[in-house]
Amino acid sequence: MTLRFPILRTPPTTAHPETHPPSIHFALQGAESARAALADFFTKKKSRLQRPLLEGLLRRVPALLPAALPEALKQAAAGRNEYLRHEAFELLGAALKVGTVHAAERGRAGS
Questions:
Q1: pTM
Q2: pLDDT tier at 85 (50, 70, 90 boundaries)?
Q3: Tally of CB atoms within 10 A around 41
């Protein structure tokens, strides 16, 4: 499974008003891609993804944290082996660190 990143282009102007604006559409695609990447990493034995890649993704795009945390928590509790449970805990630690830094930066920007 490969990571799918949203294509950065504007949608056609004939879009229906009930469709999502481009920014929300890209965010939804990014969240779905993050969930798919985590599911691939934790469920497929021959996944080419590695934890440092996923950590880097969460560091670069903190908005993906809400999509990534449920899968990481589930795998930390019930992963198929000890190694994957450990990887899930490492990923959770990185996610919490990123979330703390991101929240602190938003707090300073709001002051």
A1: 0.66
A2: very high
A3: 23
